[in-house]
Amino acid sequence: MGKNPTDRGKKGSKESVLVDGEGGPLGVVLAAANVNDQKLLGETIEAVVIERPKPTSQTPQHLCLDASYDNPTGREAAKAGKYRPHIVPVRKEKRSTKRKRGQKARRWVVERTLAWLCKCRGILIRYDKKDKNYLGLIQLACALFWYRRLHRLGQANTTHSTKKPS
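Now predict its structure.
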């Protein structure tokens, strides 16, 4: 292990999260902090817990990624998961800063979800030594995120009937 975080011997863990367009977590993978993001992309796509609609040529499924995935490994993992990758180019000259009117930024939703997850004290400061326990806590926080979101939208079934059907 290195003496400081820039030595790549960094202690700790890294969460790789796949979210929908609104920031709802779909899949989470946990790895060591010194693992590159592009190595986790395939696992993160496989960790999606809900059934995806089948992508077609008329309705493709898009995957927005940052510049660290601008390599053959990142592109292959996205295509293997049947996504259409949108990857920010590494070189600044290739980046287009102009967005069309009505087009929203895509990558900030992941950062917002990670910031929300860090509001849970057990996730911000990792008290669990075992990876499975910590991953379970993250998954519980994601489930709580979805419950609150669906409850806010009025789609959560919170009423339980004690009457027997006749």
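The beta strands are 13-19, 25-32, 62-65, 84-87.
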